[in-house]
Amino acid sequence: MKTQLTNYRRLIGVLIVSALALVLQFVLGLPQYAQITISILGSLIALLMFIDMVQTLRSGKFGVDLLAITAVIATIVVGEYWAAMIVLLMLTGGDALEDYAANKANSELKSLIENSPTAAHLVSGDTIQDIKIDVVKIGDRLLVKPGEIIPVDGTITEGCVTVDEASLTGESRPIDKQTGDNVMSGAVNGDASFYMIADKTADDSQYQNIIRLVKQAESQPAHFVRLADRYAVPFTLAAYVIAGVAWYLSGDPVRFAEVLVVASPCPLILAAPIALVSGMSRGSRNGIIVKSGTIIEKLAGAKTFAFDKTGTITKGHLTVDDVFGTNGYTPDQVLQLAAGAEQQSSHILARSLVAAIPDRIPTAQDVRETTAEGVSAIIDGQLVKVGKAAFVTPDPIKKIDKTTVYVSVDGTYAATSVLLTNCAPKLSV
User: Fold this and answer.
1) Among this protein's residues, is 322 annotated catalytic?
2) What integer pLDDT is reported at residue 314 of this predicted model?
3) Domains and CATH numbers, the chain
4) If DSSP states are collapsed to H, E and C, what string results for the chain?
5) Counting Cβ atoms within 10 Å, is residue 410 exposed (0-12), middle (13-18) or buried (19+)?
6) pLDDT score for 267
7) Which of 91, 75, 93 is nearest to 38 (CA)?
8) What span, in angstroms and rounded, lies between the C-alpha atoms of 367 and 337?
9) Cβ neighbour number for residue 29 with a 10 Å cutoff
10) Entry's Pfam families (predicted)?
11) Span 39-45, mean pLDDT?
12) Do the Cβ atoms of 90 and 267 come closer than 8 Å?
C-alpha cells in the first residue's frame, strides 16, 4: 500500500474496515476477529496519517490532528477498538469533506481560468496573425471577432459593437461601444467584429486581476483557522497532561484513552475551513468573488449592506417591465410583433422580449439584424423594426432613461418597451 493516500481513499478504507468488523462481531459472532481487524487496519491507517503529520510538522505547521491520531492508537491499545473506529471515521470523514469543499472551490477557479482569453488576433498591415495573449504589447492593433472574449484592456479604433460585461461588473444588460470607447478584457463581444488598440498587457488587464484576486482568496485562511492552529500546541499538551493525570489517579489506562477521545476536536477544527471554503465556492458559482475567508466571517456581524447603482441585488437577466403603445397599437400587439422579429436573434434583449410572450409569437420572414442597432422582419406583410430609436424611425421620439427597445411598423412608430433588470426586493442602504 502506498504511503500517500488521498483522504477519499482513507475514508473508503475506514468504511470498509468498519463494515467488515460489524459483520464479524454482530453477524458472525466473532468479536475477537473484529478487534483484530480494526486494530491492524486501523493502526495502519493511523500510521499513514501520522507520517503525513510528521511532514506537516517539518513544514513548520502544527495541528491538533496529532491528538486524534494519538487517541486512535490509545483506544486500540486498551481494547476500545470501536471508539478507535469512531475517531477514525470523524478524522478521515472530516478530511474528505474538507477536500471536497476545496476541490469545489478550485473547480470554480479552474473554470474562471479556463474562460480567460488565451489568444489574440494581431493586425499587422493587411495580415492577421494569431498570437498568444502573453506576447501582446501596449499599442498593438488587435481584431476581436464576434462572440470572442476581449483579450486585453484597450480602446476601440474601428467598429460599433455590443459587449457583455456581466462577468466583470455584474451588469446584466449589454453595453454599446463605439470608436474611442474603452473595453475590458474578459468581456464578451457581441455579433460584430471590431478593431482595438491594446492599452495594457495581459498581466495588467482587468480579467487577470480578478483571477489573481480569487487565487489570493484561496491561499489566505480566515483568522479563526489561524487562531485554532495557534493554540493547537498548548491544547494538545494540556490534553496529554490531563490524560496522564487521569491515568495516574485512577490506575486505569482506559482513562487515558477516554480523555484523548473526548479532547479530540475533529468537528470543531474541521468545521471552520469546510464552512469557509464552501461559502467561497457557493459565492463563486453565483458570480460573487470573495477576497478571503475572513470576509465571510465578518459578514456574520454585518447589519447594513450598501450596493452601488440601483441599491438592489439583481438576478442577472432582464424582464419586460412595461410597454407603451401608440398610433393605434395596443401594448399586446406591439409586444407580439417585437417578439416575432426578435425570436431568431441571440441578443440578450431579444431573449427578454421573446420570454415576455412565448406562446403568441407570430411567424417572421426576411429577418435582418443590424449589429448594435436592431432587427427588421416582415410579419403579416408589414415591415417591423425593433431596436434603437434612430433605427426604427427617423421621427423624433421621446426617450426614456432606462433600458428600452423601440418598435415601428411600416415606418410608423408603434411602441416603447421598457426592460428592467430582474431584481430582488430592495434592501436598506
Assistant:
1) no
2) 59
3) 7-111+223-284 (no CATH), 119-201 (2.70.150.10), 314-423 (3.40.1110.10)
4) CCCCCCHHHHHHHHHHHHHHHHHHHHHCCCHHHHHHHHHHHHHHHHHHHHHHHHHHHHCCCCCCHHHHHHHHHHHHHCCCHHHHHHHHHHHHHHHHHHHHHHHHHHHHHHHHHHCCCCEEEEEECCEEEEEEHHHCCCCCEEEECCCCECCCCEEEEECCEEEECHHHHCCCCCEEECCCCEECCCCEECCCCEEEEECCCCCCCHHHHHHHHHHHHHHCCCHHHHHHHHCHHHHHHHHHHHHHHHHHHHCCHHHHHHHHHHHCCHHHHHHHHHHHHHHHHHHHHCCCCCCCHHHHHHHCCCCCCCCCCCCCCEEEEEEEEEEEECCCCCHHHHHHHHHHHHCCCCCHHHHHHHHHCCCCCCCCEEEEEECCCEEEEEECCEEEEEECHHHHCCCCCCCCCCCEEEEEECCEEEEEEEEEEEECCCCCC
5) exposed
6) 60
7) 75
8) 12
9) 9
10) E1-E2_ATPase, Hydrolase
11) 82
12) yes
Residues 6+ apart with CB under 8 A from 359: none
Mean pLDDT of 278-286: 72
Q: Which of 126, 308, 359, 366 is catalytic?
A: 308
Question: Confidence band (pLDDT; 50, 70, 90) for 350?
Answer: confident
Q: Which three cell numbers stand for residue 45?
A: 491507517
Place of cell 486500540: 76
- List pLDDT tens digits, range 379-410: 989 999 998 888 888 877 777 777 788 888 88
Q: Are 157 and 163 in contact (CB under 8 A)?
A: no
